[in-house]
Amino acid sequence: MTAPISISLEVNGERVDTYVLPRTNLADFVREHLKLTGTHVGCEHGVCGACTVRVNGDIVRACLMLAVQANNASVETIEGLSDSGEIADLQAAFRDRNALQCGFCTPGMLMAAQDLLKQSAEPDREKIREHLSGNYCRCTGYQAIVDAVASTARARVGRAS
Amino acid sequence: MKASAFAYARATSVKNAVELLAAHGDGAKILSGGQSLMPAMNLRLISPELIVDIGELAELRGIVVQGDILTIGALTRHVDLLKSPEIAIHAPLLADAIAHVAHPAIRNRGTIGGSLAHADPASELPACMLALEATIVARGPQGERRIAARDFFTGIYETALSSQELLVAVELPTAPHESTHYFHEFARRHGDYAIVGLAAQAVIRDGRFADLRLGFFAVGDRPLLTAAAHKLINVAISPTALSAALSALDGELDPQGDQQATPAMRRHLARVLLARCVSTLLSRPELCVGGLV
Predict the structure, then answer these.
(1) Which of A14, A20, A85, B205 has its C-alpha lying 20 to 30 A from B172's C-alpha?
(2) Which residues of chain B have pLDDT under 70?
(3) pTM for this one?
(4) Which domain range does residue B67 map to?
(5) Contacts of A112 in chain B (CB under 8 A)
């Protein structure tokens, strides 16, 4: 029974029907099988947040989910959010505010930040920090990241009104 | 690291999951939300032969209030508890505690049943179960049995569940109108495992505790429902009475040392939490000053 198992899922809007070993986690699946390498693998035990993806609309740790558990699910990776333009303004704000240096944490940061902005139109800095608390950044000291998320929130509220 | 190879079975019903456990014994592990099991497997702390995935058993997910009992299905996710109006009304302690359980991406997957069955002594929910007088419902080959939370946690990652039993639900008495609660934990980063934490449920009448249940976590090999609370029930709370409770608490603690804190630091922080809890619940800030903490 350790043999590959058939799974069907949607990744960034595209149907994927394939076979995976039960031990393959979702992060390795999207990186190695689908060559979507924007999802990063850092700690592999749920601490760093670099592997954050969306499953059925909710952010999750891709290193703490088996690919077989994503059967019948809709998975969105950073490539999906980036290509659709959903987070173009957030990405621009990260660039403008120097909210990244090496960029390793950035895909996960963007995923978590967009998740917050979808739930809360104008979060204060404390709320932003709390929502991003599960994502490590070793370059920026977080200040610039919080700045970028806060300015994106303000800009979106401005556009909506 | 990556998890070692294992076989995988997707349970089709609770009965099916129990049969799979019975057939494979200790070699099998239940996969619920995976937020504790997957790290342990990735770190190769455990290498199960068979993973029984119960993730699709919708019957195990949900929150129901019937009479004065709140039943939470094992597969109910942390995020569901956080957003549930029933939990906010009937078990507000749990709502407070959940906000401290890990991070949003983990709360979206992690389940109450998984957290309790994993029984990490530093996690929040087991201590809440003690403070809330929960009953754990398990199903095995012999049928269903109910285990009081105080008998459920037996050691580090150890519970009263046998290897053939599946945790299916948790039952909590709904909080009476006059009850109140306190939750706080010390952690280096919001959402990390606590260095020391306290989940407390109380009934206060005329400035005294008519009831007080104090569930400490990360102070020993299992969550601790401290007997020191009895020194505070139905007495006038003076600095002397609080001091006696703090000494009694100290005698019950058996904290481990690790990279986060020494045993002495954990003892100190547990005392700080108890003093702050009593002072906050009774709205008496003067109890928290001076030489006590």
Answers:
(1) B205
(2) 289-293
(3) 0.95
(4) 58-173
(5) 104-105
